[in-house]
Write a structure and sequence with these properties.
This protein is of the alpha/beta class. It is built from 3 helices and 8 strands. It is elongated, with a radius of gyration of 25 Å. The model has no long low-confidence stretch (mean pLDDT 86).
């Protein structure tokens, strides 16, 4: 009988220890990230372009389905995609992408007259930029890749000026997710530069 009581007490003690251990072992706190604009820390007023003060409409912007989530996506191979468990976008990735794209284009064209789709019909859009994001991911310690299809339309009649496909890669200088996001920001800046170059060329014609 005494052995039975000791056994029961031992089970109770072990159960309490297990509960305490589970309480002590906590999941790592999630880490949040955001793309950054190239205009941060730079003087917008010092830039000039043939399309200064042009009215630019950004959108629609479409993202591949696998990117429309809070978790940051990386690749371990060309065909294997991994979703980070604790490293996430601070808000909707699509909104972050569109806002940074708009900031970059605004900076490069020296115009604050940027409108995001959908805008009112009464807004006199000079150039409309549409973007389909096919890929936006990377490999830690390797590179970030961004593949897009984009088009530029001119005026209220929406005359198609150019349609392009951009494939951009940027080195990831470290093994941390912050390094990956920094590389993705640089890739988005390069995409913005390609789009702006096309708009400036149209402004000269």
């Amino acid at each position: 009988m005494r052995l039975v009581l000791i056994s029961r007490r031992l089970k109770v003690v072990l159960a309490i220890v297990a509960i305490l251990c589970c309480a002590c072992v906590r999941s790592p706190a999630p880490r949040f990230y955001a793309l950054s604009s190239i205009q941060e820390g730079q003087d917008l007023s010092s830039r000039r372009s043939p399309t200064k003060d042009a009215v630019i409409g950004i959108g629609p912007v479409k993202l591949a389905d696998y990117l429309d989530q809070s978790q940051i996506v990386t690749r371990t191979s060309n065909n294997q995609v991994v979703k980070a468990e604790f490293d996430r976008w601070v808000g909707p990735f699509k909104d972050n992408f569109i806002n940074v794209l708009a900031d970059d284009i605004s900076f490069l064209l020296s115009t604050e007259r940027i409108y995001l789709f959908p805008w009112r019909q009464s807004v006199p859009i000079d150039y409309q930029v549409t973007v389909d994001v096919v890929r936006c991911d990377g490999r830690l310690g390797d590179a970030a890749w961004m593949e897009t299809r984009w088009s530029i339309f001119k005026g209220p009649e929406k005359k198609l000026l150019k349609t392009m496909r951009s494939s951009i890669s940027e080195p990831v200088t470290g093994a941390d997710y912050s390094d990956l996001v920094a590389a993705q920001s640089r890739a988005l800046a390069k995409l913005s530069q390609e789009i702006v170059a096309a708009i400036k060329q149209a402004g000269k014609n």
